Amino acid sequence: MKKLFITLIMALVGTTAMMAQTNPNRVLITDKTGTTKGFLAERIDSMWFAQIEGRIAAEIEYLGFNTGDTGDTVKIAVTRTEGCQAFRIDCLPKNRADMLGGEDGIANYLDASGSEYYWQDFTAADMTGYEFTPGVEYSIVTVGYDKYGIACGAERYDFTAPNKELVGDCSIAYTIDEVTDDIITISFDPADGVAGYAACLYQAGTAEDQFAMMGAMFGFTSLGEMVKAFGFNATGADTFTWNNNDPGTDYEIYVQAWDANGTFADMLIIPVTTKKLGGEGVSEMTIEVGDFGGDATNGYYQIVTYTPNDQTSMHRDLIIDKEAFDKEWSEEKMIDFIKNEYTYDDQFGVDVAYWTADPDTEYIAFSMGKNINDEWGPLARKELKTPATTAAANKKAGKVPARIIKQATNGTAPAALIKSLKKAANGKLRLSGN
Length: 434
Hints:
This protein is an alpha+beta fold. The protein contains 7 helices and 25 strands.
């Protein structure tokens, strides 16, 4: 063991004081996850480094799952490695555990949880005090502590809570009544066992990603809960229309039904593709320069309207600083950029765009569309110059100006669902047994 006495700390503090003309009186240690722990320098007597061989952790073995009148029980074994004095344990939905990241994140989470320490191994322990949702993935996590009380190695075991038997027939029949370039209408006819159901529309292939991103934040343990919260809800036969969808786009309607006990049935996924706009002729775009507005406090904007002809299915629009374009770009590079890199800005129909822009600056507006056969038309180009103002502006040469969002979407979650991450075990998880 090697000791670094307080004189070393004072030397470091003294050096910092000379450079910054201050007298630091705190010692701060930040780990790789960004978690910082601090101490008053005046209370530190000494610092030293120690070495402990081997991994300090509490290994998990999953033994089974039981459901009874008194609640759910998970049977596990927990074995401490040599040198592991104690461990903490928790169980949480897998999507929440995923947000913790790797071993360091799990260790920090458990170390800060304030949950009970266990000082012994378990060969057949009952983990109770947790209400599981059938069919949902969960993660059991542990962190081991060494003889200095330091949280060391973390372990994790993922499992799926068994499904419960549904009460009655929970199937749902459906009819796709109408699909246009922007409207999808579907009629639903639930079976007798369906106590309720919800339907939510997503662009194809994005529902799982949205759940991974938002599930833990809103407290959802399953994709079905997210569909129920954000989607159209009904109990009997009903019809629903989704408006303002993108033309020529693949969508999936996720339909979640549940029985009289609130148990979710298997998810029904309905694929639908909206019709394309345009024709088989040449796509052509017209660009018109509108008003310049804003102020120095809130920023300036330039309105540009991009109008497609009747053969255009989809188009992509932008403006760019003319000086930067002349130095670094060409029309060939712009065509390649619009076709292959600017893919997040697909537009349908007339696009009245509000662009962030600087006063007294020359820009070039570009647009390019393709027809119903995905054949690109010619590049449209229009040069413009914003008017001068007396206010100073910070030019952003070389960057494509960002759009100014004029209004929020109508797909926001109910305010009651917006809440902080909740602790999965609610402070009641316990291990008992041998």
